[in-house]
Amino acid sequence: MNTTHIESLKQIAGTLSQSEVKEYGYIPRPAQSSPNVNRIKEMMSLLKSIFFPDFFDDAEISAYTQESHIDVYLERLYSLLNELLCQSERTLTFIGRLPEIKRLLATDVKAMHDSDPAATSYSEVILCYPAIQAMVHYRVAHELLRMDVPVLPRIITELAHSATGIDIHPGARIGEYFSIDHGTGVVIGETCVIGNHVRLYQGVTLGAKGFTFDHEGLPLNEPRHPIIEDHVIIYSNSTILGRITIGHHAVIGGNIWQVYAVPPYSRIIQKKATSSFTDGLGI
Amino acid sequence: MNTTHIESLKQIAGTLSQSEVKEYGYIPRPAQSSPNVNRIKEMMSLLKSIFFPDFFDDAEISAYTQESHIDVYLERLYSLLNELLCQSERTLTFIGRLPEIKRLLATDVKAMHDSDPAATSYSEVILCYPAIQAMVHYRVAHELLRMDVPVLPRIITELAHSATGIDIHPGARIGEYFSIDHGTGVVIGETCVIGNHVRLYQGVTLGAKGFTFDHEGLPLNEPRHPIIEDHVIIYSNSTILGRITIGHHAVIGGNIWQVYAVPPYSRIIQKKATSSFTDGLGI
Amino acid sequence: MNTTHIESLKQIAGTLSQSEVKEYGYIPRPAQSSPNVNRIKEMMSLLKSIFFPDFFDDAEISAYTQESHIDVYLERLYSLLNELLCQSERTLTFIGRLPEIKRLLATDVKAMHDSDPAATSYSEVILCYPAIQAMVHYRVAHELLRMDVPVLPRIITELAHSATGIDIHPGARIGEYFSIDHGTGVVIGETCVIGNHVRLYQGVTLGAKGFTFDHEGLPLNEPRHPIIEDHVIIYSNSTILGRITIGHHAVIGGNIWQVYAVPPYSRIIQKKATSSFTDGLGI
Amino acid sequence: MNTTHIESLKQIAGTLSQSEVKEYGYIPRPAQSSPNVNRIKEMMSLLKSIFFPDFFDDAEISAYTQESHIDVYLERLYSLLNELLCQSERTLTFIGRLPEIKRLLATDVKAMHDSDPAATSYSEVILCYPAIQAMVHYRVAHELLRMDVPVLPRIITELAHSATGIDIHPGARIGEYFSIDHGTGVVIGETCVIGNHVRLYQGVTLGAKGFTFDHEGLPLNEPRHPIIEDHVIIYSNSTILGRITIGHHAVIGGNIWQVYAVPPYSRIIQKKATSSFTDGLGI
Amino acid sequence: MNTTHIESLKQIAGTLSQSEVKEYGYIPRPAQSSPNVNRIKEMMSLLKSIFFPDFFDDAEISAYTQESHIDVYLERLYSLLNELLCQSERTLTFIGRLPEIKRLLATDVKAMHDSDPAATSYSEVILCYPAIQAMVHYRVAHELLRMDVPVLPRIITELAHSATGIDIHPGARIGEYFSIDHGTGVVIGETCVIGNHVRLYQGVTLGAKGFTFDHEGLPLNEPRHPIIEDHVIIYSNSTILGRITIGHHAVIGGNIWQVYAVPPYSRIIQKKATSSFTDGLGI
Amino acid sequence: MNTTHIESLKQIAGTLSQSEVKEYGYIPRPAQSSPNVNRIKEMMSLLKSIFFPDFFDDAEISAYTQESHIDVYLERLYSLLNELLCQSERTLTFIGRLPEIKRLLATDVKAMHDSDPAATSYSEVILCYPAIQAMVHYRVAHELLRMDVPVLPRIITELAHSATGIDIHPGARIGEYFSIDHGTGVVIGETCVIGNHVRLYQGVTLGAKGFTFDHEGLPLNEPRHPIIEDHVIIYSNSTILGRITIGHHAVIGGNIWQVYAVPPYSRIIQKKATSSFTDGLGI
Question: Between A126 and B219, whose confidence is greater?
């Protein structure tokens, strides 16, 4: 490297380090050190092996050693969580909720299997359906959020978002037998409340219609996402916005923009599109 | 770890292992051991190197050693597939179809290049376009499914789904010169039949409108997805549902919800949206 | 392996190597050797550590060593870029633009934080929001494209596309304080021009309505994507197509298909969907 | 690469492939495919974790999960050995001998601890003493050789030889409470018979004095290495050659060249070296 | 796995877990968890980069960033050592001694370079001479032992022993300008005291002649290894045993067995070997 | 980290960076950047696969693809060597010598097999005998040294030294059919000349007796190591020093210290050791 380049690099490094100077892009350092993402991935991998033994393990696990494997996984999980949560009581509380999380995930597997003619077995659903991965991450993150663990829950759901295109905020509340088909583009907002036996298709947004702002102009974190009652189905690419209730057994068709409440047993469908032979549109 | 925690962990492990008890989330163990996902990734990586030599290899491959590289890759592929398919005749049958798969992929590359003004070269399309990755995975998975290989084809297409947001069921039938632009959110269902020279944009769903159920209440796996004839273009975020036919040379505009057949040469566009200055909507 | 299989494999390898024969799928070899994707990932990882020290590093970085870390990262980046760009002057030019890129990214972080009630801190936005990752990749790729670096910019944005579902072409021009929420399915085309303080939601397409073709039937690379002026908000799953201008302070609702210009301060919303109790539709 | 270089490389590759031509270095291909060394390393790592739980594992192992860990390790070992030995009965036979191997190794640990004033604990011996590693490999390899497993035993002892400089042929027979201090350069030949409570120092050779040859001029594999009776100590760099017996409780000093039998309770020491002030030797 | 095998494995696992039963090889669990060897390797790698910048780093380090690299390495070392030593004051004390260790190592490099005609540069000595690696490990381990750190020092010197065949106990005291040529088989005992400008060749043992035993029959840890004064040279494969003094400027020839003190300026050489034409010896 | 510690670390880093100040251990920076050791390891691994196909490869290599594998390996080797040697002509010259190196190695394999009754096959020798690894490294390094490549040859032989305990200087000249048994502690000096059919055992040193010094007091690099003629055998732990000739067909017994020439057909053996019952020696 010649001397001019060395001088330039030194100067640029100096500029980039002056992060307290606003015009060079001031970002405050994180209040506490960021959780190590590789540890979080290891934690989720352990949890998948605990919930679904012999599905995601590198080596084969016989039925007769299944309990030993779970012993081993739980001990490693306990140690990892202690490091991430910095408090062994919280770790134990969380681990104590694993059987219930496992039970809920089993209802999701059943729901996805029973509603998809392309599903050939429970095994195929567990191994291949991105929504299962999203639900494992969400249900774990939701429990951690309920215990007031910061940042970690959001990183967990974003890992699933990146892998599946399904973006569920850990704050959302979701019942049993929940299913999502295909899933890419699904967004479920922070204050959603979803009942049992609900089914979503790809591209469905359960979002906020607008925000209330505080006196500093920052949006308030209020209930602002939909309530979806039991046995609702929402087809692909529909958008449900605001603190509205979609009544039980309602069916929302695809490509719907819905900002008002819907009574139970409703059927909402899009108007028929215009069909024409217009060459001039350029499409 | 103190004694109380040890006792708790032991008890939780016991509960999690009682998977036969329904209330703790009963998931039957997989009938046969699950295919190793790392092996499948290695297989797909080999196939990409075979189809597109010198594009995805870590080291440079000269023209003069290309044939030797393919020898080496094929031998490794033969060995990997024998392990995954457990039957060498099936392995050989599949490998025998690689030249045809390569030919089809070359038509896809050409189609994507010729229809996108942003594409600067075939190389850029192969290296950067997510739809190429999706089509490599789909065309390989489709051949395996035709040979009645279970589970594996679905894992292969889901790997592409996760990486690209494009979800093509391995059962779909897709012709030559197929192209997808951008691709995130595209869903192509199990019983779709797609002709030649078809072009899709991001967010397009080719899905089922509804299912027929058997006497146990489970949905029947019948032809339920669209037939798309030659030279059709479907723009972004449109949804085509049911066993309907989109006639050749038809153009479907964006954000369309289509559940009826469309004759050849049609142009379908969305009605103009309402434009208004309504502050009360909160958006 | 028996003799028949060996003979078959030899023959198939021969066929696959005859890439110059058109019927076996002719793909020309890349004009120059493809950039090594692992190097590009290392480059992006270095850049993230330079822009946001102590957020993405494996080990903790104290405030007192921050400048030393940046020295070390910059030197490694210089070496990597020399290898990728093959010209040290271009490398230095690019590195000289890093403070400005960092400043722009800081405005994006601020914009995403201030417009999302679910955001609890700048740190959470940097660590968890996929749109930050997409913007780091885009802003870096855009600078490289401005310096006429081939292929590399597109690979960089596709890496973000795969991880986030947000597809921004490196050729697009995007102002300060840009924000995207959720992001899956967002597409921003090559010739887009986007002002300051613009906000997009998931599934928004800023695309081309149609192409002009040259005498060989290939589409011309002309300005064909929208111009979005300052302070515009576009809600989820809307599609804006063609070289049209969306005037400043306009708000486009969700699920809109827009192919005409929109004046400043407009509010565009979708017509209310038909609500009905039709059982016969099968949905 | 220019054309001349390509031509040269092609020609050299051709020459290197003509392995059947004697003048280019004829080495017959291995009769069966060579055992995968990485699998063997994994096997030895599992065995170390089984023999000495919580010493060599990456993560901490509590007393309360020790049995579960051993279950998990044994299952993995069973699977690995099946692959390496190609016969599940042999695998089970070998695993059935593990408790006895563990018992023998415990006597070795005790012997090394009790005879070295620098040893501070059993733990230090297990973790740090190269002779323990050598004995784990030897005792495992010896059992496999007794079961007529080919090649594998020799690879196992050579792995220890490379790591420790201690070269024990798997065919040697070694009793309980065996110890080696420092160990570099120790050689124990194929037909050695070593009693209990024997102690060796670095550089000791227990070798053959000469060979009997068959009619083709190849050396015969006969008993040709020493018999070392109980409670013998052999100090550093001594060489004991041929089928001679070193009687029980004998002590062989350092730097001894011994080719004749030694009665019990002997003390063998080197003659005093010449001490002189000779400058002419050049040392 | 058939039922018989499962039963057998269960039973063997049970036996192997009964470690408290003496006849199955009782080894007490380590009093505290064993230091993680991978962390220790990382620590030694950091130290080598600190002592010899730009020699062992993966990437090139310019002179102008050398100080920044050392900042970064020291911070990482501080964090690693805190974890290994569990006490930050000890960590700081150790780091404070690094400049002195570096100075001593520089004298060793100079000594090895100046006394070996095959050495072409200081760089070759640092990069290739195993004795440098051994001395880095020894000098670091010796400082830690002086601070009463348990187990860790011995693991550090054993890592060097395994890589180089040079076995230096961390308790030995070694002066400046120390050199070892080739080095395989060198053993330097725990209570050795070695002056300045001492040179050893391969296979040299500085060991104990015998031990004093306590009333339980265990050997006492007393001064029992030689004192080597300044400017002594000891040639290959010689053995010096017991608490004897080798006077300054003495030269010990090769293959010597020495158990008595040697005055300054002595020359000790082996008697001439017998030369004969005896065929009957079988060698 | 508290402020005092930060201050201390800063100061220590400063001291460690003042490498030009003599009292802090002055080591000049390497004249040119050090060769990357991982690349050298990859090079040696390629060479082993080229010399002995199907012995050291991770995957199985059929006879029918052997030539293709060699093509692929040679191309990668060409690329790696260009990077290490910085000159493509030298690279080609070296690769052109590979067939001769392979031929020499095949004679070594034959020699080691034919002289060891414990050897069961050529395959076992290639896979397990450390001397084969040492000879591959030496013969490659020797060719590079003959081409005046600096540093690299020495690193190559030191890699083998570390793995096998056999230290052969790349400058030594060694004929055909060379064999070493066990090998730990063997040292072969820079100016040795060794004929054909020579056999060494563990611990043999072929070294220098003394050096001539130049006017600066540095030792001169002159011929100073032994000449070993054809068909010589040297048994374990013997030391042959100085520019003396060991005549053809001579046999040197074990533990010999030899500084004078030996005529052809000699037999040199050690005098019988003193046998005594002296308890007072403390051994």
Answer: A126
CATH homologous superfamily of F36-166 equals: serine acetyltransferase, domain 1 (1.10.3130.10)
Pairing of strands A179-181, F205-207: unpaired
pLDDT in tens, B76-120: 999 999 988 888 899 999 999 999 999 999 999 999 999 898 898
pLDDT tier for residue B1 given thresholds of 50, 70 and 90: confident
Is the CB of E65 less than 8 angstroms away from the CB of C71?
yes
| Residue A24 in this model has a pLDDT that exceeds 60 | no
Among the residue ranges A271-275, B275-279, C1-5, F196-200, the one predicted with the least confidence is B275-279
Contacts of A40 (CB under 8 A, 6+ apart): A84, A152, A155, A156, A159
Q: Is it the case that residue D218 has pLDDT exceeding 80?
A: no
Reduced to 3 DSSP states, what percent helix, strand and coil does chain A have, rounded to the nearest 5?
Answer: 45, 15, 45
Are E189 and E206 contacting, i.e. CB atoms less than 8 angstroms apart? yes
Domain boundaries, chain C: 36-166, 172-271
CA A97 to each of CA A91, A93, A103, A149, D110: distance values in angstroms, whole numbers, following the listed order: 10, 7, 10, 15, 46
CATH code linked to domain C172-271: 2.160.10.10
Residue that is written with structure tokens 């019927």 in the block: C23
Q: Say if E6 is an interface residue toward chain D (CB within 8 Å).
A: no
Q: Look at strands F274-276 and D267-269 and give their pairing.
A: antiparallel
C58 vs B48: which has the higher pLDDT: B48
ipTM: 0.90
| Rounded (5°) CA angle D80-D86-D90 | 85
Min CA distance, B57 vs chain F (Å)? 12
pLDDT given at position A215: 81
Q: What is the pLDDT of residue A7?
A: 87
The DSSP code for F58 is: S
Are E167 and D184 in contact by the 8 Å Cβ rule? The answer is: yes
**Measured over all CA atoms, what is the biggest interatomic distance in chain F, rounded to whole angstroms?**
76
SS (H, E, C) F200-232: EECCCEEECCCCCECCCCCECCCCCCCEECCCC
Give the whole-number percent of chain F exceeding pLDDT 70. Answer: 90
pLDDT digits (tens, 9 = 90+) for D21-64: 555 566 777 766 778 899 999 999 999 999 998 888 777 778 78
With helix as H, strand as E and coil as C, how does chain C read?
CCHHHHHHHHHHHHHHHCCCCHHHCCCCCCCCCCCCHHHHHHHHHHHHHHHCCCCCCCCCCCHHHHHHHHHHHHHHHHHHHHHHHCCHHHHHHHHHCHHHHHHHHHHHHHHHHHCCCCCCCHHHHHHHCHHHHHHHHHHHHHHHHHCCCCCHHHHHHHHHHHHHCCEECCCCEECCCCEEECCCCCEECCCCEECCCCEEECCCEEECCCCCECCCCCECCCCCCCEECCCCEECCCCEEECCCEECCCCEECCCCEECCCECCCCEEECCCCEEECCCCCCC
Q: Which residues of chain E have pLDDT under 70?
A: 19-26, 31-32, 59, 270-283
Whether the model pTM is above 0.90: yes
In this complex, the residue of E5, E184, E205 whose CB is nearest that of residue D236 is E205
Specify whether the CB–CB gap between D53 and D47 falls below 8 A.
no
Nearest to A62 among D60, D61, D75 (CB): D75
Q: Which residues of F touch B71 (CB under 8 A)?
A: 65, 68
C68 CB near a chain B CB, below 8 Å? no
In chain C, residues with a C-beta closer than 8 Å to the C-beta of E65 are 71-72, 75
Best residue of E39, E42, E58, E68 to probe chain C, by most C CBs closer than 10 Å: E68
**CA–CA dist E146, F244 (Å, integer):** 47
Residue from the list D59, D68, D79 with its beta carbon closest to the beta carbon of A71 = D68
